[in-house]
Amino acid sequence: MSAASAKGRDSEASAQSESSSSTGAQNLGTAVRAAMRQFRELTGRAPDSVTGARSLEDGKGWSVLVDVVELERIPSSTSVIATYRVDLDSQGSITAYERLRRYTRGATDPT
Fold first, then answer.
1. pLDDT tens readout for residues 57-94
2. If we measure between CA atoms, which residue out of 111, 100, 106, 1 comes closest to residue 51?
3. pTM score, two decimals?
4. Domains observed in the chain
């Protein structure tokens, strides 16, 4: 194998890597960061945490569960938290979001 052909393959791999990272949410980490940033821009509420994420059934996007403090209270264990589902397309743009539930911070799910 010549040095020129190895250099050509390295350049091609680098170009593919750059193009996939600039086209949107190609992986879970990118999707989660995009969901949190865009959710804040749309709602004005800062996401507190991400409690779930998965690829959509058609494989052309992501669904991310974002928890948000909707009502800050003292003590903080009584603050009201909401879980939103945020759907993104394969480019990392939000296509839909909806509130799934509200609960107090100190509450636990029934077993």
1. 888 999 999 999 999 999 999 999 999 999 999 999 99
2. 100
3. 0.74
4. 25-104 (3.10.450)
